[in-house]
Amino acid sequence: MIFVGDGALLRRAVAHAAAQGHPVDLVCSADPQDATGGARHLHLPAPADVNTHADALGRACTDGIVWSLNNRRIFRAPLLSRGLRILNIHNGLLPRHRGLPSVAVLFALLNGEHEYGATLHEVDAGIDTGRVLAVHRFPIAPDARHFQVMLRGVRACQTLFEETLPAVAAGEPLPPPPAPAGPPAYHGTRTLARLAAHRDHPAYARATDLGPFAAYAPELTAAIGTQAPAG
């Protein structure tokens, strides 16, 4: 199997898969240290186009499975036509939290949503639009702050990966997922244009408290900075 993404979530998934005896054929990320256990590494600085390496990924993958974790690279042709089963672990409940997790969490808090989580889905030509295979949900506490929901979301992603890895690797069907979590919505950088309208919202301070995630969400950090109250 091949892993595409970045950071601690990707690294933990690679290490877990290797520890469980699954073949880790290639790790595609910006940091060579993500390829633990002697796995081969393809340097792929974000947001480099992974699709230009379609032939290399097709040759390297021994079981036809590609995992995407904490990955902002978009899978498109010709990679999607290589016969690989590409699966993404998304920080958010699809289809309600499509797009950037940091922005999805922001508006989940501003909208007073009561649950968040992680989703395993197949990758198609859209963005977070592939068939949902499994979810891991958790409640949002009434006083939850942005960084707390993000952290629980990351942990839910890791849990979901570990729970579904055995069945995916064995080619076994997963239990039917629950009903979709609310109406579809996409949360990208353009969504941040609506942030100004929420500056007086009672949950604004909690929703924009990025904590340690500020360094990993530059678009959101910049948007919050432009909306800061004067004085």
Automatic annotation (TrEMBL):
Keyword Transferase: yes
Pathway involvement of the protein, from the record: Purine metabolism; IMP biosynthesis via de novo pathway; N(2)-formyl-N(1)-(5-phospho-D-ribosyl)glycinamide from N(1)-(5-phospho-D-ribosyl)glycinamide (10-formyl THF route): step 1/1
Protein name: phosphoribosylglycinamide formyltransferase 1
Catalytic activity: N(1)-(5-phospho-beta-D-ribosyl)glycinamide + (6R)-10-formyltetrahydrofolate = N(2)-formyl-N(1)-(5-phospho-beta-D-ribosyl)glycinamide + (6S)-5,6,7,8-tetrahydrofolate + H(+)
Domain of life: Bacteria
UniProt keyword terms in alphabetical order: Purine biosynthesis, Transferase
InterPro entries according to UniProt: Formyl_transf_N, Formyl_transf_N_sf, GART_AS
Gene3D superfamilies assigned: Formyl transferase, N-terminal domain
Entry's EC annotation: 2.1.2.2
Family assignment from sequence similarity: Belongs to the GART family.
Domain Formyl transferase N-terminal: 83-152
